Amino acid sequence: MTDIRQMAEEAADELHTMADMIRWSVSRMNEAGIYFGHGTDNPWDEALLLVTHALSLPWNIPENWYATAVTRSERLSVLELVLTRIEQRVPAPYLLGVAWFCGQPYVVDERVLIPRSPIGQMIEQRFAPWWHGKMAAGNPAPERILDLCTGSGCIGIACAHTFPDAQVELLDISFEALEVADENIQRHGLSERVMALQSDLFAAASGQYDLIVSNPPYVDAEDMNSLPQEYHHEPELALAAGEDGLDLVHIMLQQARQYLTDDGLLVVEVGNSWPALAQACPSLPFEWPEFERGGHGVFVLQARDLDAFSHQYQQK
Ligand SMILES: C[S@@+](CC[C@H](N)C(=O)[O-])C[C@H]1O[C@@H](n2cnc3c(N)ncnc32)[C@H](O)[C@@H]1O
Fold it and tell me: Whose CA is nearest to atom 24 of ligand 1?
């Protein structure tokens, strides 16, 4: 038996309150050098999530509840969950089966990346100040939106909530991911306006979209080799994208123009691969928004910015 299993046995007898369980979990996670980055950024919040989940409570219970007693069988459930988090390095949202994005819950499991894109902040701000859309025609909201590489569907579904008259398509190459996206469409009650389709990049796209939004795989080979263990629970197909992380993004840039309306907008996350992209495509006037709640490496391009670029590509 490992040390931590012995410590958990003692804890089952000696801890009494929720506060005890949270404090114990924080100490063990600190000792184990757990990585935080899938929904929380510190051991206290992580422990609070795990302990409240195991006790069938919401995470935001009043603090005076922390002093309440936990029965022995409840303690065993909490300890088992915390041990799984530590021993197997499973990110908390997979253990809980839910992740939060733009203030809404999304079903997640190991078939999809855990939602965390800073594009969420742009959705909350209705893509201002970049989305100009059809203002001239008196209709400022996008009518057709494409979420390319959708995973759980979080980006497209959040767009559908923000723009309640828009039709939204969610595309992903992974059939397993699309099963999760479909479940999220149903749970969010959006099946009349949001559709999930299997597609290698734009293969199943049809017509033109006012907004194309994407958080594709973009981790380069060097970063893939140094990812904390937690990331290895996420699908490799959702992360790796060749030597410089830009395999898919280059194809997107070459093909996006034909799927964008003339006033359309392309928004793509490339994370740490942004300097490589800016260097590889010096003729493109990328704009790189800054994010109050963290995150970086999301570019914005207007459809017209892509005219010359797509034309050059078609001539090659
Ligand atoms: C980084 S995850 C993003 C998921 C989701 N958009 C989010 O932000 O949480 C990338 C997704 O791209 C999908 N993908 C990988 N290659 C693809 C391709 N060639 N065409 C379409 N989707 C692809 C993966 O299956 C994965 O679901």
Answer: 238
